[in-house]
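pinging the channel bc i need a second pair of eyes. not urgent but kinda urgent?? the chain im working w is below, pasted from the shared doc
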Amino acid sequence: MNKRKFTQYAIYAVAVLCAALINEYIIRYVKKHIDQQGYLLVLIDMLIIVLIFAPAFALVGKYTKKLSKSYLKTSKKISNSSNGTLLGFTVAIIILFILYANLRHNINVLSDIKGILS
């Protein structure tokens, strides 16, 4: 795979993962502040997603793609080697992995790493 294709795929992957993570944070925040239960909660959730999150998710995707692109360009500039994109992508995936593990699975990766290194 050539470098340009890899950069495009890396930008897309980081943008999608960031947008999904931001969406998860927003959904958790909304669920925390809605006091309804049962079917009414389901309807409220669906209404919020249709009216607010669909357009917001498109905007978040647009901005995270720009942020991802600038992040990967910066990592290329910092690293003088031709593997700057790979380095930036690897760091981004590690950070996203830690955030996903914490948010979606309640796993504290940093404390586990500290425990292994101690």
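so The longest helix spans residues 39-78. and The chain is about 85% helix and 0% strand. — does that match what u expected or am i reading it wrong
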